[in-house]
Amino acid sequence: MLLCLMKAHMSVFIRSLGLFVTTFWAISLKAQTTYDGSMPEDKVMPATSSQRWVFATQTGHIAFVPYGPSVIRVTFTSGHDDPVVPSGWGTIASPSGETAWTVNDNTLKSSQIVLKVNKADGTFTATRPDGRPICQYLGGTLNPATVSGKPTMRVDADFSSDADEHYFGLGQHQNTPLDLRGLKLTVWHDYQGAGNNRQIIGFPFLVSTRNYAILWDNPARTKAEIAVNGKTHWNSEVGSAVAFYLIVADNSDGIYTQYRALTGTAPLPPKAAFGLVQSKAKYSSQKELLGVAQDYRSRHYPCDILVVDWFHWKKLGDLALSPGTWPDPKGMNTQLHNMGFHTMITVWPGFSSESANYNEVTSKKLVLTDASGNVAPHPKDPWLRRDATIDSTNPAARTWLWNKVQTGYYADGFDYFWMDETEPDTEWHDLFCYLGPCAFVYNIYPLVHTSALYEGQRSISNERGLILARDAYIGAQRNGTTFWSSDIQPTWQALREQIPTGLNVSASGLPYWSSDTAGWQGLARASHPPHLLLDPSDARDTVYQDDDYPELFVRWFQYSTFCPTFRLHGQRKHNEVWSYGKQAEPILVKYLKLRYQLLPYIYAQARQTEETGAPFMRALFMDFPSDPNVFALNDEYMFGPAFLVAPITSQDTTSRTVYLPAGADWYDYWTNQRYTGGQIITADAPIETLPLYVRAGSILPLGSDIENTNQVQTIEELRVYTGADGNAALYVDDGHTYDYESGHFQLAKLHYDDKTKTVQVSGEKSLLPASLHPHLIEEPSGK
């Protein structure tokens, strides 16, 4: 048994890679009749488990509380007292009630971890039962400090870092390599992080290639120095204790299964979330949005979600559409639903003093304030006029927000929500909230804010929610969220940065992420590279004089095809797949249709993520831990167990080197050429080709052509890449409700035997047409 959760049920799913069953406790959210603004954290009791061991040191007390054999929470407090330190924000598990650990003098032991504690200074060494090293905790300190006029402690702690360790995670840092070793990073939300709108998501979850992770249990602004001078150092500006979880597993996926049990399940998104999400900044009217929908359907190009972005309101904070440009949103949504579309609308946390809700939200004291209790406006934002910001740390504010969103948007038929500015992009650090000084809970806003809409919608509907959010904190994945990298630049450099950025977000336990395809910011008015792969002359209304933008858009679109969420957005006059010229359009349509052809494969990966917590956009260290060549690869990744993706990220580039990881053979997806792993090859990449490779032994179920996920999609081809045994799964449910949680789904298990060159199917065999025969890909090994 893994972690004992407060609200739990047993669930089982067959992994798409491997025919073994993973059984574990999962979060079960029951429908409510009303939403009271509460969160799982509000119900978690302090750690009072009978299994709690405390050692008095020379400077304080170090305490250990187990959460199963693979997870233990460690706290250090200074002074003579031994206070019980409650779990922090984001975690929802209760301490284990099992007798999974034993204690003998200074040694704590489970089936997975051995901790040897130095009683004098409170340090400890963690190993596996067979003696293999995990890490060393080198000690922590608490020093008096004053923040926001309140007395507190500055928290510091150190961990060992060996030369053979590599590190991933820590949220989103857009100007860093994939491997975080040797870096000094800020771990807090910062819209302007590293300049040029490279937004930072502060996420204190660090994963080591030794198959352990540190979850730093402190929501204040934190700095992390990773493997600098032989140690990893954490520093938080506010805290009452050093507090962290040590998570240990046999492999990367095991870490995320433990993280999932500790912080909550990322629920299976609606199937529409894996189709094309069409957006721009901004569709200005009901007429324009309906026109885009009709254009997609008349061209028979697949698309699932249409987005209504900002300034759909009369005044910021109305939480309703302006009737002048959106005269009948309910009728519009009915039309769009009948055409097979879902809709998403942006919800902001700010209020203009002229908005319909300002007086109510301020008089009820549901907003952030200054130290004197006065409403705190955004001091540098005369354009949006954010005169108040909702205080989502307050349960009453969360209830109020959902009620307004329900009547202003949800009742009119909008399906999903885009929660922008979840930092909340204001002078948050120096303000005060329901919980006290905002500095003391600096990073939790996106967790509590997104919970308002997710829990609110679940309280009245069985329809799956989907929230697009700009920031995250521990546990935010359980709020039906997908994240994005914010207002990035439309440049090749920004594209290059997205690959390691997205991989570290996934490595942080946040499986759903995307970028604004080809950047959000406005285009350069003049860019004239000496050689272009695409003619921009018939796309001037979109690209102006930015000549290489159609090429950038195509290359970025190819990359986005293989991201968990597939989104178009940005400040262009037009932003649909036909907007970038006659040469670009057929290439974009090729990848758009490929995305939909791969939906059976992608949806099965998403179901596996719901069951295990493991992401399916994966840095190569997750699948090839024995190959040291993959740790520093910033521009390749796995998309599920089958695909190795190697995007083109430079202008006028028609080839690139690709490293094929050792331990597998690989097929070029386009030519079926087979290669032995452990080598660097040169991949041909004309503008219509994304370098894409499939691992030998992979089984790819390819779906029939559909224009949206409401349509029935059958398996048109079962492609098998020979050279190794392999396993896969087909998973089908209704695509839009939570009924799958009660077992209402169909599952087929597929196994390929390379010796006999046959595929066996068990479970729901009807998911494959009876007349369908596997298409075996066989090619002699290349150089």
Detailed description of the structure:
The longest helix has 16 residues, at 445-460. Helix 6 (395-408) crosses helix 7 (445-460). Strand 6 (102-104) and strand 7 form a beta hairpin. Mean pLDDT is 93; it is low at 1-33 and 43-49. With 783 residues, the protein is an alpha+beta fold. The two termini are 47 Å apart. It is globular, with a radius of gyration of 26 Å. It has 12 helices and 44 strands. A 9-stranded antiparallel β-sheet has the order 6-7-8-9-10-11-17-16-13, with no helix packed on it.
> Tally of extended strands?
44
Distance between the termini: 47 Å
Strand order, sheet with most strands: 6-7-8-9-10-11-17-16-13
Oligomer: single chain
- Low-confidence sequence ranges: 1-33, 43-49
Largest sheet: 9 strands, antiparallel
- Gross morphology is globular
Per DSSP, what share of the residues sits in E-state strands of 2 or more residues?
A: 25-35%
Which radius of gyration do the C-alpha atoms yield?
A: 26 Å
Average residue pLDDT: 93
Total helical segments:
12
Write the layout of secondary structure elements.
Elements: E1 8-14, E2 21-27, H1 40-43, E3 53-56, E4 60-66, E5 71-78, E6 102-104, E7 107-109, E8 114-117, E9 124-127, E10 133-147, E11 150-160, E12 167-172, E13 184-187, E14 201-208, E15 212-216, E16 222-228, E17 231-236, E18 242-248, H2 252-263, E19 276-278, H3 286-299, E20 305-308, H4 329-338, E21 342-347, E22 350-351, H5 358-363, E23 388-389, H6 395-408, E24 416-419, E25 432-433, E26 436-437, H7 445-460, E27 467-469, E28 481-484, H8 492-507, E29 513-514, H9 540-543, H10 549-561, E30 566-568, H11 584-597, H12 599-612, E31 617-618, E32 637-639, E33 643-645, E34 655-660, E35 665-668, E36 674-676, E37 679-684, E38 692-695, E39 699-703, E40 715-721, E41 726-732, E42 746-753, E43 758-763, E44 775-777
Parallel strand pairs: 19-20, 19-30, 20-21, 21-24, 24-27, 27-28, 28-29, 40-44
Antiparallel strand pairs: 1-2, 3-4, 4-5, 5-18, 6-7, 7-8, 8-9, 9-10, 10-11, 11-17, 12-14, 13-16, 14-15, 15-18, 16-17, 22-23, 25-26, 31-32, 32-33, 33-38, 34-37, 35-36, 35-38, 39-40, 41-42, 42-43
Helix pairs in contact: 6-7, 10-11
